[in-house]
Amino acid sequence: DVIVRNDTTIQPNKVLIVYLSRTNNTKAIAEIIYENMGGTLVPLELEKPYPENYQATVQQVAKENETGYLPPLKTKIDNIDNYNVVFVGFPTWGMQLPPPMKSFLNQYDLGGKTIVPFNTNGGYGIGSSFQAVKELCPNSKVLNGFTIQGGSERDGRYLVIKDKKRKEAQTQVKNWLQGLRLMKENP
Ligand SMILES: Cc1cc2nc3c(=O)[nH]c(=O)nc-3n(C[C@H](O)[C@H](O)[C@H](O)COP(=O)(O)O)c2cc1C
């Protein structure tokens, strides 16, 4: 057997994949990561969900970003200390990290862990979101994130990471994970 140095193998039970998703594009990427890494897949849910209406949500998010409001989470993670790799997935909202993900990173002590961001967006990129993850996790090792174009609710495009696009995303996610030298330990 060839032993490749620097390869980091990870036991699936040490992997947590937390994601925020409204129209399921980020969820699709989270599922692809899960297929490759195993672990525990957790959607972030709020105590008080955002409105169904897109414009109302945009306005609420803008206000929350302005005031630094951290919306309370319904989702609770048991035994966060059992995980040493935490994937955090989110859409770009108002060119920033969405408030619920700020709540998550603020609420849990992720010091000493490896944090792996991933993102979908409407075509305008990650904005300040990856930088915000770094700032909210000052004592963690934050790896290079993954980003891909998702939908655009504004333009009536909802879930687009499906069918052929999902296949393409699978290849991109695999390449990214390999580049990070993260891989599931074979039993
Ligand atoms: C409130 C809100 C704000 C958004 N702001 C942006 C933005 O600033 N830039 C961008 O490229 N896309 C923006 N989008 C589009 C989403 O990032 C994109 O549709 C993403 O794929 C949605 O992920 P989801 O399907 O997991 O919810 C916004 C969407 C919403 C709902």
TrEMBL record:
It comes from the Bacteria. Residues 15-181 form the Flavodoxin-like domain. Coiled coil: none annotated. GO terms for molecular function: FMN binding. Keywords: Signal. This is Flavodoxin. It comes from Flavihumibacter solisilvae.
